[in-house]
Amino acid sequence: xxxxxxxxxxxxxxxxxxxxxxxxxxQTLQNLGNDVKTITAFSASNVILEKRPxxxxxxxxxxxxxFGIAWQLYKILKKYExxxxxxHIDGHIFLYGAGLYKLLGGRIPVAAYFNYYxxxxxDTAISMALQPKENIFVRAKKKIRWLIEKYIGMPLANRIxxxxxxxxxxxxxxxxxxxxxxxxxxxxxxLIDFGKIMLENGISEDTYLNRNKRAGPFLLFYSSxxxxxxxxxxxxxxxxxVRNKENFKMVLxxxxxxxxxxxxxxxxxRIEKYVEFPGWVSWPRLLQYNKEADIYxxxxxxxxxxxxxxxxxxAFGVPSILPGGGGLEWxxxxxxxxVKNGAHDDLARAIEKLAGDYDLRAxxxxxxxxxxxxxxxxxxxxxxxxxxxxxxxx
Length: 394
Known about the structure:
There is one protein chain. The chain is globular, with a radius of gyration of 22 Å. It contains 15 helices and 13 strands. It is of the alpha/beta class and 394 residues long. Helix 3 packs across helix 4 (136-157). Strand 5, helix 4 (136-157) and strand 6 form a beta-alpha-beta unit. The longest helix has 22 residues, at 136-157. The chain starts with a strand and ends with a helix. The chain has two domains: 2-191, 3-Layer(aba) Sandwich (Rossmann fold), CATH 3.40.50; 194-374, Glycogen Phosphorylase B (Rossmann fold), CATH 3.40.50.2000. The strands form two sheets. The chain has a seven-stranded parallel sheet with strand order 3-2-1-4-5-6-7. A six-stranded parallel sheet has the order 10-9-8-11-12-13, sandwiched between helices. It has helices at 17-31, 66-79, 91-103, 136-157, 168-177, 194-200, 207-211, 232-239, 259-268, 283-292, 308-315, 327-332, 344-355, 358-372, 379-391, and strands at 2-7, 35-40, 55-58, 86-90, 110-114, 162-165, 186-187, 218-223, 248-253, 275-279, 295-297, 320-323, 336-339. Pfam families: Glycos_transf_1 (PF00534). One of its GO terms (molecular function) is glycosyltransferase activity.
């Protein structure tokens, strides 16, 4: 098959795990015998550090508006029809342009891959930070966009031939908004090469067990972009309720608009001497933190969301504390203990429980490797299934 991906950008420096998993998907489909090319639609944002094994074609969508992006994406699809047997799009950005292409007689099947939410949805992130105040005109504009996407956009998007989602939770949210419930829809999972990560970092299934501590201090670790809803504030307030704080060191890496606010929160809670904010760290240093961490903690964010950072913790065998009932619990299963987002005392007791139970940490670490061996977490099993679904469209 000639599979032509259309993605927003390829930024291998700062764009995070979504680029890593897309790159793995494209390379694996190529290794399965397909002719894979990718078009970057916002190519000014590309940061391609090394030549990729697939061809990269740079286009530039100039519009920042919903209809403009859809129309320019439609024109890109028409331009490259003769090069493709399948168009493979970033679902959350290009679903309406792809639907328009099919509505206007586009003859090439389109597959949409969803790993993110729609911008028109209400902010469901759990956070102590208040939403910015908006005047009536901004609220009206957002409501109009929501109505347009639901009642015009979704019927367009439903013309796309097949969908794939990184979690069943995200799939449900899209279907609740109006995307069709199709038995052929595939939950592909977040795509990550656990074996490669372990090999390159000298990690075996016994590495964490061999360094598992019977006494502190215990290193609590979390890394993400410091924006509203990522859970850093919830984590700080929960940690402030931990007894015997001298038994812990918390490292929170990343930067963003909330960074200074978070440092102030730590100071106001009088926990700044226990919390380290190293800011943005290099990739080797980030991997080293995973090697050193005793417990990975991620709370907040959106209930349907998953996390590449938490998958790395699993690759390193690090037990986690996560919010229950959402995408993270589906992803991590028995590798973590679960709390309710925003329940600070529950989070504090979970930290104390996991730090105080050597055997529980060992059990959760062993469960990391049981989980990543499951077919639903194995990209070498999942991508061939997706490949067959793509073939069936031709």
